[in-house]
Specification:
heterodimer, A: 7 helices, B: mainly alpha, 1 helix
Chain lengths: 249, 73
């Protein structure tokens, strides 16, 4: 991703999130049942959908990595999962605040939606120790990809299982028999959703560029260290000039 | 459960949005620190490249001197 593309994405993200939040507080009506507290919905639900979607995207990149062996796909898989875990933290925190306001409790253990999200989140938290416990870079990438694919397949399965469980506490907002969201709420939700989705894409882009630059710098430093050990062409004098020398990295 | 009155619900809604913004700020802070590290590394590499070039020039001059000496003798 180019720097100019990232800048445009970042600007668009800020614009969309700003517009979304403005719609939440100045346009969308208060919900009849929950009142003002339902405004958390426009933040919590897009974050949750994007976090879960991001885990699946991480799994798709992992498949591409295993098929091609290209480390770029492994980096994309890692960064997608990383951004989604951060979004997952936001989902859990905003959800707990909403639960406290609505149900009087920070957490409800017999609610499948909450517990299943926590399980998925904790599952992905184990991705980091698994990945960094392996020193060999190639094996690390391969094992991480297998994990990302397995866990990524678990996300939609988990989602369907929870929908089938028909919980009584956690609301089902979309496509219920009682009717979904009214138009103005839908519009607000879609703008917020687009903003949060773009935020995810932007963060993933930034992280990928930072990772790539870091990798290029390491390669450059290694090349310079090795170059310092090599004598100049056409001379018989061998010298070792660079401090640290080759093989320090 | 009936809807909370605005003064009470407002605190929770504000808390949720503040948590989101705070997380974002922390993330951006971490990214900024990473960029700072990359920028320091670029400076170090530029310095290393300069030193390597100076050393290579010195070695080339030394070998030229040695060759000239050999020719003279």
């Amino acid at each position: 991703m180019k720097a100019s593309t990232l800048r445009t994405l970042a600007l668009l993200t800020a614009l969309l999130i700003g517009a979304g939040f403005a719609l939440v507080f100045f346009y969308a009506p208060n919900e009849a049942d929950q009142g003002f507290i339902q405004k958390i919905f426009y933040l919590h639900v897009p974050l949750a959908i994007i976090a879960l979607g991001g885990f699946v995207v991480g799994g798709i990149h992992a498949i591409r990595h295993l098929r091609s062996g290209d480390p770029v796909h492994d980096a994309r898989s890692y960064v997608s999962i990383h951004a989604s875990v951060i979004f997952g933290v936001a989902v859990l925190l905003t959800g707990a605040i909403w639960a406290k306001a609505s149900w009087g409790k920070w957490w409800v253990w017999d609610e499948p939606t909450l517990v299943s999200f926590l399980i998925v989140f904790l599952l992905y938290c184990t991705y980091y120790p698994l990945r960094y416990a392996i020193e060999d870079r190639e094996r690390q990438a391969r094992y991480a990809s297998v994990f990302a694919i397995t866990a990524g397949a678990f996300v939609p399965l988990n989602f369907m299982a929870v929908r089938a469980a028909q919980s009584l506490v956690h609301p089902r907002t979309f496509g219920t028999v009682d009717g979904g969201l009214p138009g103005d709420m839908w519009l607000t939700f879609l703008v917020c959703f687009a903003g949060i989705a773009l935020l995810w894409v932007t963060l993933v882009g930034f992280e990928l560029v930072a990772k790539r630059t870091s990798g290029q710098l390491s390669r450059l430093r290694r090349a310079l260290d090795e170059g310092a050990d090599r004598p100049p062409l056409g001379s018989g004098v061998a010298g070792r000039i660079a401090p640290g020398g080759a093989g320090t990295r | 459960m009936p809807a909370l009155p605005l003064d009470e619900a407002g605190k929770y809604v504000a808390a949720a949005y503040v948590v989101f913004v705070l997380l974002l700020v922390v993330y951006i802070g971490i990214m900024a620190a990473k960029l700072g590290r990359i920028s320091r590394e670029i400076e170090e590499i530029a310095e290393l490249a300069e030193r390597n070039r100076a050393a290579a020039d010195e070695r080339a001059a030394e070998s030229a001197r040695a060759e000239a000496e050999e020719v003279r003798s």
